[in-house]
Design goal:
Length: about 110
């Protein structure tokens, strides 16, 4: 929405790169809640997808925010906020995945 307003009021801030980024964000805005719902229902593939999406978006947003002169300042700030949220998502999803891993119990495995 912000990008549409900027395209009308300040077109120099609504760059082609910003539009490309907005399309990617829109796709993940659809995929991420779907995978979150699956993960909350106990789906291992949903949880794995959350971990992968969180890590990829963390790296991509940090790299894009660091590119000089490509994105306007307001968008760089947005990217850093998204990167921080994806870091939290990645940390939480990794913790859940570790806690779900079966722990070997020496009593049930018997002597080796």
């Amino acid at each position: 929405m912000t990008l549409v307003v900027l395209a009308v009021t300040a077109p120099h801030l609504a760059t082609d790169e910003a539009w490309g980024h907005a399309v990617i964000v829109a796709v993940f805005a659809i995929v991420l809640p779907l995978r979150t719902r699956a993960a909350l229902k106990g789906s291992p593939s949903g949880l794995r997808a959350l971990t992968i999406i969180g890590c990829v978006l963390l790296v991509v947003n940090l790299v894009e925010a660091a590119l000089p002169g490509v994105f306007p300042t307001w968008m760089r700030v947005e990217m850093l906020v998204i990167a921080a949220m994806m870091l939290i998502l990645a940390i939480l999803s990794v913790r859940v995945r570790r806690n779900r891993q079966p722990v070997a119990d020496d009593r049930t495995n018997g002597p080796q």
